[in-house]
Amino acid sequence: MTKTSGPQIISFDILPQSSPSAKKTPRYAMVLFQDEVLETQSSIRRNELLKVIRKLEPDIIATDNLLELAPTEKGVIEFLSKISSKVRVIQVTGSPIHGMTSLKKLATRHGIEIIKHPSPIETATVLAKLAALGVGIEVSALAHETRITITRARNIGPGGYSQARYQRRMHGAIQQVARKILEKLTKAGIDYDEYETRTSHGLSRCAIHVYKAVDSVSKLVQSEVNRIAGVAVRISPVKRRSLLYSPREENGEHLGPRRLLVVGIDAGTTVGIAISDISGHLMAIHSGRGLSRGDVIRYLVEFGKPVLIASDVSPAPSFIEKLSRSLQAHLFVPDRLMSVVEKRELAKSFTANSELSPRNAHQRDAVAAITKVFQAYGKKLKSLNQNLRKSEELHLISKAVSMVFQGVSISDAIEQSIISKEPKDAKIEPVILSQSVGEGYTSEQYERMIDRLQRQVESLQRQLEFVKSQHHLSLEEQKKTKQELKHIKQQLNRALNVEQREQRRDEQIQRKDVEIQRLEKRLHEQNQTLESTKRTLTNLKLMRRLEIRGEVQPVVVLPHFSQEELRRLSDRYPRKRRKVVYIQDPSGGGRSTAEQLIQFGVQLVITHGTMSHLALKQFKAAHIPVIDAELLQITVVDEFAVVDVEQLDKEITKWQDRYESSEREAAAYALERLIEEYRQERRNESSENNG
After folding, report:
1. 71 contacts 18 by C-beta, under 8 angstroms
2. pLDDT score recorded for residue 464
3. What's this model's pTM, rounded to 2 decimal places?
């Protein structure tokens, strides 16, 4: 008989003058052990130790103190989270919870020789031998749970014409990957909770909390990682908040009696928890964002055994239903939905005599759920608790509670629970054969037996052949399925490539459409400008023909009577073209502007509006007519204008007549003044002579 080999163990001990809290990387002595020492390393760094463990994946890692790996418990958890969940971590010397024992005492107790001052290699060897004998406490840093996060792998960008379409396609791809992973988990019978952020076109984010170790989950969903471009699938183990120390199976230690709990849960993104004992004494109120069922269970078992889980809404969310099944506790659901005011009053009444009080709405709803339980079944629970304590069968209350909620009386529930309990001293009677094999059989019976057995062998052979053929067919079918899957993947890739090409083409078409719209708008503006220019040119040609025939007089248009406009006049028009000027707004002009315009060689001024008295005086002194534009028929085209010659001559004649008349009146008035002055002088002289 061959000897079964023991577990493969890697044990380590920190070297003297090394410390995990020092800046310098600590070094360790390492031993690979399996029934005997297979390999030793006298000095190895922490990251090298991790590489060896990940490469070999031993059955057990043994040490005398896990804090040799890192100065804090959080650092130890971080180190152990990088190791496969199949590897068991053993702290040989015990734990702070179960008690510590020195390595020398353990070695002496189990007959292992150890010197007074062992070297690190010798210490690691002793640790490996003790771990192989089942000594020590098992330490767990991972919760045998896995978190799968499905999000977009890249940023959508600052914006653009295709941003909305790209975002819709991304949300659809995230939903597609999430559904594939959920189908695989469901098909494999793995328990999980799903938290998704839904949009109108799919999912923007999906988080799946799987209640199974990361190794098996990674193998199951690995095919979906990086399957669709732009979708990121991250698989990570769930780390415990603190190290879990548990006795090894070989020790056979069991937990003692635990307090029975009634738990109120408010499920959602933030989970509210309220814990009460079976008598209605409020023990704890807690809430946390993103808590998984594992987190809730680990929190609850610190207080005792939950026998009833209460929901604050009806029907109960799937999170609470799964939680009650995991804890094998009865689920309580209120008969109707409670309003916020009712929940507030229930929580206030339940915590009136307690030091605890809810700090937010989630904790308040959890307390309200417990209050509903004790309103409906408080007396029954109290009576059930007292009866079971009297009968010293407190461990049966979980089953009895379920019976009470189903309508069974308290006495019947206790009696049925005790009857259905298997006796501790029950024994299984062995089966005794009535006679030995082959005793009392005749040769004919042997022949019939042999014939029957031969027929059975032939039948089994035919079944075996059928199974082999079915197996062969299943292999062929599997091969065909793989080929079809490969073909589908190729088609999908081609479809994705076609879609990408169509997307690029659509983007190019959109850019071209925008450019065409811009050019069409510019062309329309230029056409309008061209039409306006054509009309202007036609009018100018017409005005030029009329000017040549002598029917119109060209006029220079001056928008404002200012120094700036006069400078433009001198720059744009030669002196011979400045004979007639049309001032559209003469209000700003004065004597200096009038003198400057006279110097430009103006012979006639047409004005629209009232001109200042000083300017009029200057023009009159220069004998330049100033005619009101309302008296003439002026045609203005841009900066050019013409006036009818006949009307202009007529108005000039009128102005000259007025000018000559005013001049004659002025001369007559001056002559009268001169005669009057002469007469006055003669009178003055005659009066002097008489005197």
Report:
1. no
2. 75
3. 0.47
